[in-house]
Design brief:
The chain is of the alpha/beta class. It has a domain at about 20-260 and about 295-385: Glycosidases (TIM Barrel, Alpha-Beta Barrel). About 25% of the residues lie in helices and about 30% in strands. It has eleven helices and 26 strands. It has a ten-stranded mixed beta sheet with strand order 23-22-26-20-19-16-1-21-25-24. An eight-stranded parallel barrel has the order 2-5-8-9-10-11-12-13, surrounded by five helices. A hairpin with a 7-residue loop joins strand 6 (about 90) and strand 7. The model has no long low-confidence stretch (mean pLDDT about 95). It binds alpha-L-arabinofuranose. Alpha-L-arabinofuranose binds near residues 70, 71 and 173.
Length: about 500
């Protein structure tokens, strides 16, 4: 039997809410249809934002939203998306599906969306094809509270007060779609561009995100850190608050990817094994960052992660629309447990993407909306947001799955907030229940105040517009308290949350 030992007297870090962040790009039906339907739509909306989606995301406690890309960010010219909508420029979205982008969702609309969601803003700037002046003016437009050409333009466009930009990305994937740069070339550009991302409001300094590596490109992390650090170590912490990392799980590799809904046992384990790889990536990239920043002032922002399958048959291949099964719930549960455990370095993570694209929490079809299994995991795990990570360790866990793609049967993380301990456990087995004995360092008298589970009898189960509740969060009763220990029986392929006080 597996044993989980929790030292509730030892908080080892703080879990930033932003670890539960999301990403929305001008890609497929994420922004248009998914989030924004326009003021004149028959779909209920407030200022163009669909009410059903906004309400669901608020319930899930979305903490931060990244926009406008992705690859789209380094082609996006923000002035195309302000002012009279009928006069905004139309363009072809060359990256994603070759559709017409009418720029009806721009800076004002994004700020309105995040206002309705009550979440922080993460704007990704254009370093790949934009100028320093353009980036600098965007920041001035959004955040300057005084007399200036850009602040005046914002006021002319109907917004008197500046907005808060909480995070600003200086380029996206500049090793690839953001300009195909070398680490040194990008880093020198980063040094230059970030200089003009000004803090106009000391009460709300903008946290700057430097473009980090793709997967295991440690050479990129080394090159960027070295070049950024060179000559200005004393200024270093003023200009790089976070560095990003992007990692997607493709069960059959980048070329083939694999179906979102049809998979066998081996593919299940291969997918989860690949999800677990994020742990090694975080450790190895962090070890490089540690050489320059041993005090861990520079956070890691895993601002694109999740499953990337072959898109659903019959849909535009450039729209990246995919279904979401119990397997996605496990990938989410596993990844979020790992991010929690690395909260000393991981300060933000944004799953890709929010609605209708890749591992979404929400899917829409016209006026219909469904919550995916991944949504329910984020909803359960919201109790970890802003909590203290507790020391915890599992022993006696079986290793399961085919030799090449072995995984531990159970993963976990534990946190404490407002006197309540939240334990999240994943059972990675396709068939077997897992018994876990949970023991605390000092705590002997306790009660379970809440317990929930996301699972289904069939690991392939997913929600459809006809059957939206095939997989959902339900109350969990597979536990008992014996002699000061909590005995848990995790159903096969499940994500479980147990809260103790
Ligand atoms: O999320 C889809 C794409 O994946 C993003 O645009 C890009 O940054 C990444 O390659």
């Amino acid at each position: 039997m597996a044993k989980l030992v929790i030292n509730e007297t030892n908080a080892t870090g703080h879990i930033e809410p932003e670890i539960y962040g999301h990403f929305s790009e001008h890609l497929g039906r994420c922004i248009y249809e998914g989030l924004y339907v326009g003021e004149n739509s028959d779909i209920p909306n407030v200022n163009g934002m669909r009410t059903d989606v906004v309400e669901a995301l608020k319930e899930m406690q979305i903490p931060v939203l990244r926009w406008p890309g992705g690859c789209f960010a380094d082609e996006y010219h923000w002035k195309d998306g302000i002012g009279d909508k009928s006069k905004r420029k139309k363009m072809i979205n060359t990256h994603w599906g070759g559709v017409v982008e009418d720029n009806s969702f721009g800076t004002h609309e994004f700020m309105e969306l995040t206002r309705q969601l009550g979440c922080k803003t993460y704007i990704n700037g254009n370093l790949g094809s934009g100028t320093v002046q353009e980036m600098s003016e965007w920041v001035e437009y959004m955040t300057f509270n005084g007399v200036s050409p850009m602040a005046d333009l914002r006021k002319e466009n109907g917004h008197e007060e500046p907005w808060n930009v909480d995070y600003f990305g200086v380029g996206n994937e500049n090793w690839g779609c953001g300009g195909n740069m070398t680490p040194e070339f990008y880093a020198n550009n980063y040094r230059r561009y970030q200089t003009y991302v000004r803090h106009y409001d000391d009460a709300h300094p903008i946290k700057k995100v430097c473009c980090g590596a793709n997967v295991d490109d440690y050479h990129w992390t080394e090159g960027v850190m070295k070049t950024c650090y060179d000559h200005v170590p004393e200024a270093f912490h003023g200009f790089m608050d976070l560095i990003s990392l992007h990692y997607y799980v493709h069960p059959d590799g980048w070329e083939k990817k694999g179906s979102a809904t049809e998979f066998d046992d081996d593919t299940w384990y291969r997918t989860l094994n690949k999800a677990l790889f994020i742990d090694e990536l975080i450790r190895k990239h962090s070890a490089i960052i540690d050489q320059y920043d041993p005090e861990k002032k520079v956070g890691l922002s895993v601002d694109e992660w999740g499953t990337w399958f072959t898109c659903e048959p019959g849909t535009n291949p450039g729209f990246l629309y995919q279904q979401n099964t119990v397997r996605d719930a496990l990938v989410a549960g596993i990844s979020l447990n790992i991010f929690n455990k690395h909260c000393d370095r991981v300060k933000m993570a944004c799953i890709a993407q929010l609605v209708n694209v890749l591992q979404s929490v929400i899917l829409t079809d016209g006026e219909k909306m469904i919550k995916t299994p991944t949504y329910h995991v984020f909803h359960m795990y919201r109790h970890h947001q802003d909590a203290d990570l507790l020391e915890s360790a599992l022993t006696g866990v079986d290793t399961i799955g085919p030799k090449e793609w072995e995984v531990p049967a159970v993963t976990e993380s534990v946190s404490k907030k407002d006197g309540i301990i939240t334990i999240t456990l994943n059972n990675l087995s396709t068939k077997d229940c897992e018994e876990v004995e949970v023991q605390f360092a000092d705590l002997k008298a306790f009660e379970v105040c809440e317990a929930n589970v996301v699972t289904a009898d069939d690991m392939h189960a997913y929600n459809t517009f006809e059957a939206p509740e095939n997989v959902k969060e339900v109350a969990f009763d597979g536990y008992k308290i014996c002699d000061g220990k909590l005995m848990v029986t995790l159903p096969a392929s499940s994500v479980v949350e147990i809260r103790i006080k």
